[in-house]
Amino acid sequence: MNLNEIAEKILQTDRIAVVTHASPDGDAVGSTLGITLALRELGKDVVVLSKEPAPLNLSFLPFYEEYGLEATIGEDRELLLALDCGNKERLSMERDGFDEIFKINIDHHVSNEMYGKLNYVDSDSASTAEIIFELMEALGVIPDQSMAQCLYTGIVSDTGSFRFPSTTAKTLRITAELLETGLDFSYIQRVLFSTSEFKRIKLLGRALMTLESHMDGFVSIMNLEANDFNILSISDRDSGDIVNYGLEPPEADVSVLLKEAEGFFRVSVRTKLQIDASSLCGKFDGGGHVRAAGCNIKAESLEEAKRLILEEIERMRSV
Known about the structure:
By secondary structure, the protein is of the alpha/beta class. It folds into two domains: 3-193, Alpha-Beta Complex (inorganic pyrophosphatase (n-terminal core)); 198-318, Diaminopimelate Epimerase, Chain A, domain 1 (Roll). The protein has helices at residues 3-11, 26-41, 128-139, 145-158, 169-179, 185-193, 198-208, 226-232, 277-282, 302-318, and strands at residues 15-19, 45-49, 79-83, 102-107, 118-121, 212-214, 219-224, 254-260, 264-271, 287-288, 292-298. The longest helix has 17 residues, at 302-318. It is globular and about 55 Å long.
């Protein structure tokens, strides 16, 4: 499947719904709002589906307020465009009408389950926003500054401001074209990477106090209890960047953040060189990227959750 075929199908369709994964990040929201702007410029009737609002730090994006207003596919919708989501269960929407509607699945996660009628999954792209840029080209849409704002947000979010190994020459070429719109990229960088609410900084402090070193420093593990989120009145999705701090020790190759839930632990994983984060999380029915992934581990205690993931890392190291 190529993007020209997908563009042809979209151009033949008038009423479209766009959706991405639950707990949306910068790439998910930037891609969704970017393609929404492009399709509306083409005269399409587009609805954004989501069970929840987008993160507050993305409120500068155009049409941010449409996130979380609708979650059910209207009977008039002809096509569902699913973005940045590896499996249909994680799509942030109600299931009414899902099986019947024509689905296009666009993603860059290697673990994608190809659940669309049409699928375009490019794991060589650093972000789904890159693919949306290319889709806009296929649709004949030249990104304006508002679209560029969305796509740039997606790209810098998933590349860690161009720090992650997923960044390619193509990533930078696309970024250069977005900057040519006059985009105020320094404002976006400041909001995404240099601005945090007081309670998020406090949450970071709580996590760092739990930092442990395992396997002679090869693995860093941190954890957050349910009570940490309750005391600070903060959502667990506001903890996304904390796991990156575990990779700062030069000897660390894997960083793990365990977040307590009811009967299980939400797990975020980041890696440098030796361990494939997606494969590691895949052992617990999760997935993601080679260097950044997530999963849920069913465990009765924190110590059990640590043991399970450390045993799997040890096994992967020995292969």
